[in-house]
Amino acid sequence: EQRVYLEADVTFPSLSALVEHYHINPLPSSNNSMPNYSLCLHIPFGYVPP
Fold first, then answer.
1. What InterPro entries does its record include (predicted)?
2. DSSP conformation letters of 2-48
3. Selection from 25, 28, 26, 23 nearest residue 47 by Cα
4. Quick one: which of 49, 8, 48, 50 has its CA closest to 28?
5. What is the mean pLDDT of each run of 10 residues along the chain (50 residues)?
6. What are phi and psi of 20, to 5 degrees?
């Protein structure tokens, strides 16, 4: 089982703000097996930024 932990010092007022943030910024990763790989969320179908 793989788990992804988000930054402790970054808080979000809503789920949509979290999605918007990690659509632009890569998710934090401690995976050293793929150092040139970063993961960003895709905006869900129908999502409209605030």
1. SH2_dom_sf
2. ------TT---SSHHHHHHHHHHSPPP---TTSTT----PPPPTT--
3. 23
4. 8
5. 66 79 73 56 69
6. -65, -40
**Rounded distance, CA 4 to CA 11, Å?**
16
Closest to 22 measured CA to CA, from 12, 34, 9? 12
Q: Among 40, 35, 5, 46, which Cα is nearest to 20's?
A: 40
Q: Are 20 and 40 in contact (CB under 8 A)?
A: no
Output the six-digit token pair for 15: 């789920």
Q: Which residues contact 24 (CB under 8 A, 6 or more apart)?
A: 40
How far is the C-alpha of 13 from the C-alpha of 6, rounded, in Å? 15
